[in-house]
């Protein structure tokens, strides 16, 4: 019996039956390592999301208590939605409150538009209900299946560039610049040096086919960061969470207030961004993992989408902004994750994070950034599947791909690609090759850009 099969043997009971490990050519050890890897690359959300949401209370006596409440809401919503994905869809995708959506929640809906945060949570809840209805009706799955293969490859590569860009930013290798928008950071900064060491180290481990290379790279980089003064020595390791601190946000959504006419645009915005961020992530990561069938369709897509939708509804009740499928799931896929067991392990890590907050929070961005950059490089290989000799196929894919990092939005990249694709086909005399759903989406996206900005 091979080593791989012998390692999979212990899963012959419940794990094998539930997650079909042998059928997916994986084993428990690989899935566990993949789940931990995914968690490590997205664990930043545990601190970042409550930090953004608690900005609403900046300068008030409630700020710290609201931060803690939002942090618990962030972790619990991630656990809830990711467990749904694990058992319902059996995919290695992790979910948590989405970046960008939390900023829109705080800075646009609450600060600029002047709505109470409880009303904003109500809008998230309503958008989640709409997500569920669209998922049950099969509309979201139909959209995924209508996307042409070349555009899917462009989306996959674009997500790779996007998460690599995020990694470069987190590492301080790329910084903002007034003259050129972006520029290289100071290569003398300890955090930048640490991140570059991590990139090389992780790359070498992958080149040598070391099992769990990405996860090992994260921990090794964090350890190297201690003498450099980048990785702080945690004050402690274990801390018991105070769930009473969750009370200020749990169940505080104002659904009635969110039903006002003025909130239609807000609900649409939450719906729009989550819908296409999720589609982009599912398509991109699935293409990288080889989950798509010969027709470019994602099996069990309706279950994955429904898990995402219910996650948003649950997240609103728990007290956080829109929950969505995380592109960082690509890190776990790259580490070998192929089933819901990966997602279940990720959810378990989030649960442990409730008790080991001081330890997890000590891992700096400079240690997790290399994983994002390396995984981005892996996903960029999607460009090989684009038909570059046919401009009606290549240009839409390229625009979708390049727009994601440059606009800092997966949804915007998808929208631009969807608009350009049918136009290129029609003007090239190939209109019959365009699925009618692509035409509908192109019009909706165009209207969205013209009237909503």
Structural account:
The chain has 2 domains: 18-386, no CATH class; 387-453, no CATH class. The chain starts with a helix and ends with a helix. The protein is built from 21 helices and 4 strands. Strands 1-4 form a two-stranded antiparallel ribbon. A two-stranded antiparallel sheet has the order 2-3. The protein is mainly α. The protein is 66% helix and 3% strand. The chain has helices at 3-8, 14-19, 28-42, 45-53, 63-89, 101-112, 117-137, 139-146, 149-171, 190-207, 213-228, 255-258, 264-289, 301-318, 329-334, 340-353, 357-360, 365-379, 391-407, 410-427, 436-452, and strands at 95-97, 174-177, 181-184, 323-325.
